Amino acid sequence: MGNPSQPLHTRLTELLRCDYPIIQAGMGGPGRSELCAAVSAAGAFGCLGMVKEKPEMIRTEIAAVRARTERPFGVNLVPSVTDPILLDEELEACFAAKVKVMVFFWDVRPDIIDRARRAGCTVIYQIGNLADAIAAERAGVDAIICQGFEAGGHIRGKVTSMVLVPQVAAAVSVPVIGSGGFGSGASLVAALALGAEGIHCGTAFLATNESYAHEYHKQRIVDASSEDTVYSDVFAIGWPPQSPVRTIENSVTRLYSDNLSGHGPDDFELDVIAQDGDEAVCRFSTYSPLQNMTGDLEALALYSGQLCGAINRVRPAGDVVREMVNDANHVLARLHLLK
Ligand SMILES: Cc1cc2nc3c(=O)[nH]c(=O)nc-3n(C[C@H](O)[C@H](O)[C@H](O)COP(=O)(O)O)c2cc1C
C-alpha cells in the first residue's frame, strides 16, 4: 500500500492514473462505452468488455468512450476463447487506437502479454488460482486481478477471494486486485487489508443505468438473494468445454439441477430462443440478455455474482463509485486508519 494517510491511493491508482483503486470489470455485452465512460468519469477505472467483438465495434466503442470522458480506461479481451484471426484483429484495433491498458482473462497467454507490452500497453491479467498468478507475473504483467469463486460470469478458479487474494499478494510483487464479491466501501478496505491494492467489480456495475444489460437482467439481480446464484457449465455454446459460470437460477439451471457440470458446446442442440439484432441466440449459449435483445430472456445466462443479495436498486454507475469511496473512508475512519 502507498501513503498511509491516503489509503485509497495505491500503486494501482498510480499505474492506471485514476483517483480510486476500483476497476469496472470488462463485461462482454453489458460493459460498453456508456458504462466504461461513466465509471472512469467518476474517478474509478472503466473497462470496455470486448470479448469476441468485431474490430469495427471495438474502434467505435473506444471513440465513444473518448467522446464522453478524457479519463483513462482499458479494454478487456479473453484470448483463449476467441478465434485466433479475430483475436489478432481485436488486438490490432486496440493498439492502433492507442489503448493504454489491456485487461485479459482466462488461461495465461505469455504470447499475448508480450505482444501487448511491445505495443506499449499496461497489461493486467485476471487469474483464478495461485499458479496462474505466478505464471502471469513471470510473463511480465503489470498487475494481477485475483478472481474468487463468488464472482459473476465465467469463473476460472475454485477458491473464494478471501482465501486467494492474500496468497497471491504474498507470492507476487506486482499490484494485486481483488475480484469476486467486491462492491462496497467495506469490501474495498477489506481487499486492502488482505494485501490487494484495489478491487475489480462486475456485478456491482451490471445493475446500473449505464450498463448495456437488458432491464430484465438488471431487475433479476435486484430481486435475487445471494443463495439464488448457481455455478454450472450448462451455458456452454460459445466457450471451450467445461467453462463454468455463475448465473441467477432460471429454467435452464433448474432443468439441469442434478447435472450442472461437465458440459461442452457440442452437448446441446441448437435451439434459437432469442434475437440480438440479426443474430440468433440459442438456449445454452454464453450470451446474456442485452438491451437490444428480444425473445425468451429468462432462459439466457443471467450472469451474477453472489453479491446480488446486496444490490437493491439500479443506480447511476457514478453513484456506485462515489458511495464505495465515501463508505471506504468512513470504514477507515471507524477503524482509526484515517487521521
Ligand atoms: C455479466 C458479466 C459478464 C462478464 N464478462 C466478462 C468478460 O467478458 N471478460 C472478463 O474478463 N470477465 C468477465 N466477467 C467476470 C468479471 O471479470 C469478474 O471476474 C467478476 O464480475 C467479479 O465478480 P463480481 O461479479 O462479484 O464483481 C463477467 C462478469 C459478469 C457479471
Account of the 3D structure:
The protein is of the alpha/beta class. The protein has 2 domains: 19-210 and 312-333, Alpha-Beta Barrel (TIM Barrel); 225-303, no CATH class. 34% of the residues lie in helices and 17% in strands. The chain is built from 12 helices and 14 strands. The strands form 3 sheets. An 8-stranded parallel beta sheet has the order 1-9-8-6-5-4-3-2. The chain is globular and about 60 Å long. The two termini are 16 Å apart. The model has no long low-confidence stretch (mean pLDDT 96). The structure holds flavin mononucleotide. Keywords: Flavoprotein, FMN, Monooxygenase, Oxidoreductase. This is Nitronate monooxygenase. It comes from Pararhizobium capsulatum DSM 1112. Its EC number is 1.13.12.16. Pfam families: NMO.
Please describe the structure with a list of short key phrases separated by commas or semicolons.
339 residues; alpha/beta; TIM Barrel; 2 domains; eight-stranded parallel sheet; three-stranded antiparallel sheet; 17% strand; binds flavin mononucleotide; flavoprotein; oxidoreductase
> Into which percentage range does the β-strand content fall?
15-25%
Distance between the termini: 16 Å
Report the top-level CATH class of the largest domain: Alpha Beta
What's the Cα radius of gyration?
A: 19 Å
CATH fold call of the largest domain: TIM Barrel
Order of helices and strands: HEHEHEHEHEHEEHEHEHHEEHEEEH
Helix content: 25-40%
Q: What does the largest sheet look like?
A: 8 strands, parallel
